[in-house]
């Protein structure tokens, strides 16, 4: 299931990042794609060693480390360094599935979740929707700048062609403490219910404590060390 996370970046930080990206040195995005994905990828991307990319990927990583909604939904064990992408008129990323394993430094990590942080206001461009195939259909997403879409990395997805303006985004992948998507969603639903009931009844209600115990016992059962 695809989840929308809000307020990833503060408005002032987002404005500074948008200004920096406007003058960035974009490279061919195919250089970071696998052989199959490269055939359907047409966009620009910042090199991983670009000083501005390093600075802002670090800022996004810190922002995610402080975002409770991200932690609750993703239960992250590791996340990749965010990559910055740019789509101009006519550019797109055709239907594909992300690699199951990504190199992060000298190590490799499993990609359980993919995340797209939208950096351009929707009014700045036409087209460019992110379409994700789910069990409920193929919804399209075009979120406000500063919001993030989190979805299973096993999902087939694509960025539709941009027909006007420029679409900027940052993408990253997550290795979760809980590998199975269904188990992770069950924990998320349970956590949300516990939080809602606690706000109504208070955290010391015995039923809240019992549900909290169930949450942690399920997490203990499913978590991977």
UniProtKB/TrEMBL annotation:
Origin: domain of life: Bacteria
Which SMART domains does this entry report, sorted A to Z?
Answer: P4Hc
Its Enzyme Commission number(s) read: 1.14.11.-
Q: Does the keyword Iron apply?
A: yes
Record note on cofactor:
Binds 1 Fe(2+) ion per subunit.
Q: Which Pfam families match?
A: 2OG-FeII_Oxy_3 (PF13640), PKHD_C (PF18331)
- Tell me where in this chain the Fe2OG dioxygenase domain is found: 78-176
A single GO molecular-function term is:
2-oxoglutarate-dependent dioxygenase activity
GO biological process entries: DNA damage response; intracellular iron ion homeostasis
Q: Does the keyword Glycoprotein apply?
A: no
Residues binding Fe cation = 96, 98, 157
Q: Which cofactor does it need?
A: Fe(2+); L-ascorbate
Q: Which UniProt keywords apply?
A: Dioxygenase, Iron, Metal-binding, Oxidoreductase, Vitamin C
Query: Which residues are listed for 2-oxoglutarate binding in this entry?
Result: 167
HAMAP family, sorted: Hydroxyl_YbiX
Descriptive protein name: PKHD-type hydroxylase
């Amino acid at each position: 299931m695809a989840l929308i996370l809000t307020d990833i970046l503060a408005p002032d930080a987002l404005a500074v990042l948008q200004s920096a990206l406007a003058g960035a040195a974009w490279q061919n995005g195919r250089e970071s794609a696998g052989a199959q994905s490269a055939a359907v990828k047409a966009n620009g991307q910042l090199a991983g060693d670009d000083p501005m990319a390093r600075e802002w990927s670090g800022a996004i990583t810190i922002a995610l480390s402080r975002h409770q909604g991200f932690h609750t939904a993703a239960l992250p064990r590791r996340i990749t360094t965010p990559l910055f992408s740019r789509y101009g008129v006519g550019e797109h990323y055709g239907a594909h599935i992300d690699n199951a394993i990504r190199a992060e430094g000298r190590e490799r990590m499993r990609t359980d979740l993919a995340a797209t942080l939208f950096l351009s206001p929707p009014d700045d461009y036409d087209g460019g929707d992110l379409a994700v195939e789910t069990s409920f259909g193929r919804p399209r997403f075009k979120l406000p700048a500063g919001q993030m879409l989190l979805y299973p990395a096993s999902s087939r997805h694509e960025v539709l062609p941009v027909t006007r303006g420029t679409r900027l985004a940052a993408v990253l992948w997550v290795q979760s403490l809980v590998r199975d998507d269904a188990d992770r969603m069950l924990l998320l639903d349970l956590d949300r219910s516990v939080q809602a009931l606690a706000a109504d009844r208070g955290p010391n209600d015995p039923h809240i404590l019992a549900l909290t115990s169930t949450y942690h016992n399920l997490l203990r059962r499913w978590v991977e060390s």
